[in-house]
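Sanity check

After download, print the first record. It should look like this:
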Amino acid sequence: MNTEWLHSFAEAAKLKSFSKASKELNLSQPALSKHIRNLEHDLDVTLFYRTSGGIELTEAGERFYTRIVPVISDLASIRRELQQYRQTDYLALGSLPSLATYYLPSRIKALQRSHTLMIQNTSGDLLQSLKEGRLDSVLVDSLYTDDSVWHCELFTERYYAVFSVDHRFRSKTTVTLSDLCGEPLIVHQAPCDTRSHIHRQMEALGHKPHIVNEVSFGDFIFGYVMAGMGFAIVPELVAKNIGHLNLFTLPIADFKRSISLAAKSGKLGTQLSSFLLSAD
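Expected structure tokens:
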């Protein structure tokens, strides 16, 4: 039984809404719904009634909520108590996949400090892990940070569109999101920060992304693009490191992301941010 499932259940039960609970926990609604389904499967009971007006706890759900809320509180208390036994020189870091691949390695090598690195697909999940004490510091999309944790912006970068070499945009030097709205798009499976941004920004322009394929995280997406099945949108860090592939990339003039460092304390955050920024 995963503690993230328990937090998702408790928040949904308290707010009587999956959408409100997902916003409160900085999760996508599909991710929270999956947590609930996993928990129901694990317990072999139905916890919520789904109705057109929202959600309601079943009798089993009411009993589980009453019993599990004190347990969640106890787990948080135990975690806090055990912090004193952690190695003070051991650093638990978290990162989005693109940053873990192309931004952190050279900088971590120079850090000369024992560490672990947890990679998660969304900033919301990383920040939740930070708040629960499982991580000391995380690199996330700045859109997801708030005043509940210390944070500092590190850099801003453009998103790039990735095309097969025979695409009709080959003669262009840049594109806008409006140029891309009707193009067949290949995305990573949800939950995914970039996917969420694409939806949000294109819908703001009055369009829906024309998604034709969804693939797992990793470089599989570029194989689909090379085969001419559509185009992809990736952060600049990724786009600058795929020159060896039979593809071409164009910067998207009106689509950017900002990356921030969040930390469990201002002291640690200030030390790490100074180190990371001085390495640039």
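If your output differs, re-run the checksum step. Summary of this record's structure: Residues 157-256 form a domain with the D-Maltodextrin-Binding Protein; domain 2 fold (CATH 3.40.190.10).
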